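pinned: reference chain
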Amino acid sequence: MKAAVLETPRKIVVREVPDPVVGGYDVLCDILACSVCSGTDRHLFHNDPYFKVQFPTILGHEAIGRVTACGPKVKNLNIGDLVTRIFNKLPEDSGIHLHWGGFAQKGVATDWQAMRADGLPETEWRRYTVQRVLPTHFSPAESTLIITWRETHSFLKRLQVAATDKVVIIGSGANALAFVKHSHNLGVETLVIGSPKRSEHFRRSGANSFVSYREVNQPAAMKALGWGSADVVIDAIGDSSSLNKVLPLTKSGVKLGVYGLDNVLDYHINTSLVKGDFSFYSGEHYDEASVHDDIIALIEQGKLNAGEFISPEHIYPLAEIEQAFAASWSGEVLKSVVVMER
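pinned: its structure tokens
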């Protein structure tokens, strides 16, 4: 099969690699689409020390695939099923490492329900609980957003945001927009600090207020918009300097969620700016699988719309994966999608 292999930092090549290894509880899938993550994929591409990347490797953790063959122990997945979060499993002697491996023509999903029913320990099947069958009418390209939506929704649930809370979201990328959508669906008031070029888009998607990240005195700008304080702050970028700017306007007991990864190894909260106690929530911890049914229901109800995140102009064939990366990471588009031509 063909895959986009990150040979060394910032050098990605589409080439032939071995087909996936399919175990007894696995299903082989044709990967149909995989969206580009402006956080994880970008940091892996640039060899961020946080990830301890081993090269060569295949990226892509937001893949959607269709089942083409089933292992002998599979009971709950069928040929033709559309499945979320396809991983890859290559032969041990392939010489290729995997960071999920969704930017490839084929991949593997695992029947974790059968593993659980057969009495295998949870440590062996829990990571596959994110692999779920989707409604047959769902678009593969649009369904790549389900991963982003599940991750951010489950993180927001960890923060136990109340309907009366006022939430500040730092960032204006796809993750920030996802937090806005979830908050809006909960009836929670949000203020976004981000790029002014995205202001109208975020407002149309449910943000109540918007402040440019270029604003020198962000607390003053927030007060001018009627924001005297904030109960929750979510940093969707991962830059402590951005978080520290808004801390003077937070309440005692504020919940600080750091979801982004940009400067995760050098993140310093200025506690002298916080009024009293605060709770810290790391973006490394969320339960994506636990909110799958919630996300599907929100899509069916029209409350989550992929068209607010992706556009047909930014769906790229695998051969043009470098253009897809550039479009996402330059801010040209919120999210680009790679489709696997055959």
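why pinned: The chain has two domains: 2-143+310-339, 149-282. The chain has a mean pLDDT of 96.
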